[in-house]
Design brief:
Number of strands: 8
CATH class of the largest domain: Alpha Beta
Mean pLDDT: 89
Distance between the termini: 24 Å
Structural class: alpha+beta
CATH architecture of the largest domain: 2-Layer Sandwich
Helix content: 40-55%
Largest sheet: 8 strands, mixed
Shape: elongated
Strand content: 5-15%
Low-confidence stretches: 327-353
Number of domains: 2
Oligomer: single chain
Order of helices and strands: HHEHEHEEEEEEHHHHHHH
């Protein structure tokens, strides 16, 4: 396979992973949302949250860049079960708990008011961001010896035992255990981002392809690490996922027993991902030809990601162009022009220390 490892790492660092400015922006919105919720609950005489916890791709650091800044931040709010009671002292239903949070967040400053959804309250921002606020209650129990234990339940269609922080821990453990490196987020996390970026590389795919969470689970199942070759790690993992989906389209939830991310044994989104991975594998086939050139290889990666990023890094084309320019300037008819005759030094981060 023609070696484009450094080019893929440069693409990851420039076009895939979120820039620090975006991370800071989202963190500030998340924190402002927490303060808004606490103030709204207090003003309405509602219970104070026990804690907040970031969740999902934001917490796992697997979010990818999107031109329209279409980012969802999951930020759970946790209450003690004992305080979630209605005006007459009855236990709040899951819907009532979500409505309470929605009402507290709606301070009149949003163009689109916060919305109660099945598993969360969604807050819309004009820049394209959404902050999803799942609502949890903490249930504490004691055994016969007086020892306390607790678990959490999510306000969904009903109260359902769940805690997304378990997913974040699961992913961090897998990333640490499976990655062959320790830098730049570790390789498994980078490959998750790179495949998620491919899955969102065409706008028409967004409503048809498997969710980012489903892709993350499949990468942990099928990861093929390679400390020296980022491109090979990505290609081999794509192929392993495609082959895995060829015999089983069911993707199980990583921490909740008997729950799946996909729907049924013939999930349409999983099938669509399988077909698109086959497309990517076919696009990269020329990289395995014995006479493959750097120019051809970079064009293949351009085709996969629907970009011109890789071809723009083609030093051989730059050298050819600068050589022609130099030759043209040897005997100028009127004036002498000078041109750079060496390719620009590559100063992109490589991802390895």
């Amino acid at each position: 396979m023609y070696n484009c490892a450094n080019d893929l790492l440069a693409y990851h660092d420039d076009r895939v992973t979120l820039p620090q400015a975006e991370r800071t922006n989202m963190r500030e919105r998340r924190d402002a949302n927490r303060e808004r919720l606490k103030k709204g609950l207090k003003d309405k005489g509602k219970p104070t949250p026990r804690e907040f916890a970031s969740q999902g791709s934001y917490a796992m650091k697997t979010m990818t860049q999107h031109p329209a800044k279409d980012y969802d931040i999951d930020d759970g709010v946790y209450f003690d079960k004992a305080v979630l009671v209605g005006e007459r002292g009855a236990e709040m239903t899951a819907l009532q708990a979500r409505q309470m949070v929605r009402n507290a967040l709606d301070d009149g400053s949003f163009k689109t008011p916060p919305e109660v959804r099945k598993n969360c309250v969604r807050v819309y921002y004009f820049a394209g961001y959404c902050v999803d606020v799942p609502v949890y209650r903490r249930i504490t129990t004691k055994d016969i010896f007086g020892n306390e234990s607790y678990h959490h339940e999510l306000a969904s269609s009903d109260w359902k035992r769940s805690d997304a922080r378990d997913v974040s821990k699961w992913f961090e453990d897998e990333n640490t255990k499976q990655s062959p490196d320790t830098v730049n987020g570790r390789q498994l996390r980078r490959v998750v981002r790179e495949i998620k970026k491919y899955a969102r590389s065409r706008e028409s795919w967004s409503s048809q392809i498997l969710s980012g969470f489903g892709i993350t689970k499949l990468v942990t199942e099928c990861f093929r690490g390679d400390i020296w070759r980022e491109d090979r790690a990505l290609y081999d993992t794509m192929k392993a996922i495609r082959d895995r989906l060829s015999w089983n389209l069911v993707v199980e939830h990583p921490v909740t027993p008997n729950e799946t991310i996909t729907s049924g044994t013939d999930d349409a989104r999983a099938r669509f991902l399988r077909a698109r991975l086959t497309d990517a594998i076919d696009m990269l086939a020329p990289l395995f030809e014995h006479d493959c050139t750097r120019t051809k290889a970079l064009k293949c990666w351009d085709k996969v990601y629907a970009t011109s990023f890789f071809s723009e890094r083609d030093e051989s084309k730059s050298e050819k162009k600068s050589g022609l320019l130099k030759a043209a300037s040897v005997a100028p008819p009127v004036a002498v022009f000078t041109f750079p005759n060496a390719p620009r030094a590559d100063d992109k981060p490589r991802g390895f220390g």
